[in-house]
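Project channel, design review

CF: Before we commit to the Streptomyces litchfieldiae constructs, I'd like one complete example in the thread so the newer folks can see what an input/output pair looks like. Taking Tellurium resistance.
RD: sounds good, go ahead.
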Amino acid sequence: MASLWSYWRHGGMPKQKFDTVGGMSSYAVELTKRSPTAPLTGAGSETGTLRVDLSWRMRSSTDFDRSARSAFWRRPLEIFKPAEIQGHSQGVASIDFDLACLYELKDGSRGVVQSLGDLLGDFGAAPYIKLSGDDRFGTASGESIYVNLDHAEEFKRLLVFVYIYDGVPAFDRADVVVTLVTADGKNVEIGLTDPVPQARACAVALIEHHKGQLVARREVKYVYGFQSEIDRLYGWGMSWGRGVKPSRQR
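CF: and here is what came back for Tellurium resistance:
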C-alpha cells in the first residue's frame, strides 16, 4: 500500500514507501472508516518505542481547483455559493499544527503531554510518554511523541490528538497525517480526512489494550474548542486552564 503521506506530499502521485528493520521490510497501513483498527504491539514489538509523528502540507491553489471540480459533480448547486477559500496566503501556510496525547494509566493517574504549558512528559518515568520538538513547518522529522512500550501494561488508554494553537482554523486547508511507527517498523497512518471548517482540534487515535495487545483505533473527530472539549468528548474528567507555549522549544 502506498504511503498516505507520500501520496499527499507528492500532489496525489502515489509512491510506495518501505522501511527496513533488521533486514525485513514493512509498509504503511492506512486506518480508514472501513478498516479502523491496527495492533501496535505483538511479536517483535512488545517492548521498545512507539513513535507518533505529525506531518502536513498546506494545499495549493491547484489542489483547491481540483477539489472544487470534484465537489461540483457531487454537489452542483454549491457553485452558486460564494467560495470560502480560493487558495492560501503565506500566513495560512505557516499555521502551526500541534501534536498531543491524553493519557490514563492503570493506577488512575491522568494527564496530557503537549507543548502548550511545557507539559512534555517523561520517557523513563510516568507517564512514559515524551514529546520531542515543536515543528512549525509540517516536516516528517519535526514533532514526535515517544511512548515507552517497556511499560505498556501500565497504560489504560492513550488518545492522540492534533490542535491549532496559533492562527485561524485550517484543518480544511491542509493535508494532515499522523503516523504511528511501531517497534518492529510498521507504519500505521491516519489521515485527517473530511475536515470540518472552523475546527480547532481533532481526536485522531485511541490506543487501548485488546486481547493482550495495544491496539490503535481511528477516531478523526473534530471539535471547535481545544483540549477541554476533547476531554469532555472522551470523558477524561480533567480540569483545564489557559496555557501558553514556552519561549524555547526542546
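RD: helpful, thanks. The first helix runs from residue 4 to 9.
CF: The domain at 4-234 is CATH 2.60.60.30 (Lipoxygenase-1).
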